[in-house]
Amino acid sequence: xxxxxxxxxxxxxxxxxxxxxxxxxxxxxxxxxxxxxxxxxxxxxxxxxxxxxxxxxxxxxxxxxxxxxxxxxxxxxxxxxxxxxxxxxxxxxxxxxxxxxxxxxxxxxxxxxxxxxxxxxxxxxxxxxxxxxxxxxxxxxxxxxxxxxxxxxxxxxxxxxxxxxxxxxxxxxxxxxxxxxxxxxxxxxxxxxxxxxxxxxxxxxxxxxxxxxxxxxxxxxxxxxxxxxxxxxxxxxxxxxxxxxxxxxxxxxxxxxxxxxxxxxxxxxxxxxxxxxxxxxxxxxxxxxxxxxxxxxxxxxxxxxxxxxxxxxxxxxxxxxxxxxxxxxxxxxxxxxxxxxxxxxxxxxxxxxxxxxxxxxxxxxxxxxxxxxxxxxxxxxxxxxxxxxxxxxxxxxxxxxxxxxxxxxxxxxxxxxxxxxxxxxxxxxxxxxxxxxxxxxxxxxxxxxxxxxxxxxxxxxxxxxxxxxxxxxxxxxxxxxxxxxxxxxxxxxxxxxxxxxxxxxxxxxxxxxxxxxxxxxxxxxxxxxxxxxxxxxxxxxxxxxxxxxxxxxxxxxxxxxxxxxxxxxxxxxxxxxxxxxxxxxxxxxxxxxxxxxxxxxxxxxxxxxxxxxxxxxxxxxxxxxxxxxxxxxxxxxxxxxxxxxxxxxxxxxxxxxxxxxxxxxxxxxxxxxxxxxxxxxxxxxxxxxxxxxxxxxxxxxxxxxxxxxxxxxxxxxxxxxxxxxxxxxxxxxxxxxxxxxxxxxxxxxxxxxxxxxxxxxxxxxxxxxxxxxxxxxxxxxxxxxxxxxxxxxxx
Length: 795
Fold this sequence. Notes:
Elements: E1 6-10, H1 14-25, E2 29-34, H2 42-46, H3 54-57, H4 59-70, E3 85-89, H5 90-93, E4 102-105, H6 111-122, E5 131-134, H7 141-145, H8 150-153, E6 156-161, E7 170-175, H9 181-193, E8 198-201, H10 210-228, H11 232-238, H12 251-257, H13 259-272, H14 286-293, E9 306-311, E10 314-321, E11 326-329, H15 336-339, H16 347-355, H17 360-377, H18 387-397, H19 404-411, H20 413-422, E12 438-441, E13 444-449, E14 454-457, H21 467-472, E15 476-479, E16 483-489, E17 492-497, H22 506-522, E18 525-528, H23 541-550, H24 553-571, E19 577-579, E20 583-586, H25 588-594, E21 598-602, E22 605-608, H26 622-636, H27 642-653, H28 663-666, E23 675-677, H29 683-695, E24 707-708, H30 712-727, H31 733-746, E25 756-757, H32 759-774, H33 777-789
Parallel strand pairs: 1-2, 1-4, 2-3, 4-5, 5-6, 7-8, 17-18, 18-19, 19-21, 20-22, 21-23
Antiparallel strand pairs: 6-7, 9-10, 10-11, 12-13, 13-14, 15-16, 16-17, 24-25
């Protein structure tokens, strides 16, 4: 396969423009083309433009790019990546396609339109060896390929992105009958490595894998809701995290996708799935048809199954009563079976407990899962050759915590079959002979093949490390309730957090020293990383709240000292330490990362020192580290420290969080030599490779003893700004107080500028400032509010 450096996206609608943005995120140069407008806008007429003006002829592509630049959540990891996208139109710029290595078609889901674009515009301008793909969500790739010359078909395939492309990992790959298998493998590797996609191999069947199963599950859920007399709100209370699915459950997901899109997929499925035994499930319910007719299309029309309004009393959320078409105030229904699993982290355990319950929520969960899981079993080998592709499709495309076959294992296959048969449901014969769909044998994970009736090993992917499999293989060398030390191979060890939300606890701090000792004695380096939902959300706030309530300030002082000791041990280990942060990396999680020799971050890392939100300051070395980085930058460029220290002060005082790993550079969290991994599954392996590279010529550091303090004059300038903010109503009085404490610490305390201080001196200042804030009742109020409401209090 030719190297891909330049790509073209044909179609600048929401999907096309967001795909173009993500290709730019991956470092590609992108050509974004669309049709020429048929008439002028009023604004264009006023400017004296004509239909021949380039500004007019490129208007649709330009509008698509402008919209995606402003989009929230952001489609670009950095806004400046938009500069990598060049706009144009099909008529004037088709010849530019000859310079593209990959062309992806993203126009309307209409076979005739797609064929015409491919044959008339693309094929005459396709470079030899260039790759051509379609983003169709379910049209036949073989029918589309029939319009292409034979030499083009071998490089033609489906690359079905899920929306929004930056955030949704799933990408379904489908070749036509003539597609070169080596091209499919090479493209899958490229899409995985460069774009960060989770690749699923689908077949040329309507709606492929994820939409076939996911939309069936949604429509079946609607049927069961009507049959049981449940409300939209009640269904979403059941079909979310309690049953290993996303918080958006059924109807919030429908609003997100678009009710018109959901209806289109349902109609398309019903029309094309003539031989599907469950075809009638895809019939669009009358209330959904009525919603589309009334313009209730979900989030994009600001009303769908839910209506959100800003009123004088605050934000009001209502749900649709599908029986009469009116909106009713939400009541947050509670069910015993759902409440019982709220504190359980393991999704498999949650699911098993809910379906075993005896209230109507448990009954709804059982009925919908029973039907959806049996439907999925019957789809092999029709839509996929194995269970792994289907499980991954549902986890990556619909954000299920467990795939369908993992759900069957969680419930227990034998128990599932017995209960389904008791209900009088037709259970597939192959399901009756399975003990479990996944198993571990000699440290290797195996999957059950429904076609052959045998187990097959799931082959490891080069460049990926799965911590769960390593642990099953006996690679854990140290462990406690909240963290483990794992042998990653080649002399590299991994420190894995697995506490609730990966919050930092005393035993994690203690294990940090053991992990470092193990790496120093028996290996060459350490990776700090895990494969949970988030790297770490910071310190355990509940423990802090209890300590404050009891007035246990000595215990808090000891805890802060232990935290500082752990991060300093990371920084000054005799072997290299690499942090592998991802997703939420907040507070203490950020501080751990800042003390590593290097960071290898996942592209979607949201990192920040956010302690001020709960009335505290970063005291695990975070404030100290940001002071050092500012001082060292000023020293490196032989300039005044003020702009560097002010920036870092603002980052802490405003609790700034990166919205991508790329943004971490501007915030000062990533340095030269740090790197970003696009594919989450490669993160630990990439961090391990960085450790090995550093270990080749590693020189341990020593705590700094000759730091030039920014001093009290800089702190005074910071406090002056805080006073102005408070006077202008932009900061509360207590926020100004907290900011003053942070200013004193980050500038080196009450000393003249240039005073020589040590790293330990800054750590002591951090700890004193932290304890000072702990003694203020407003900090306790902030912590309590965060624990109760999940958002910061501005008191």
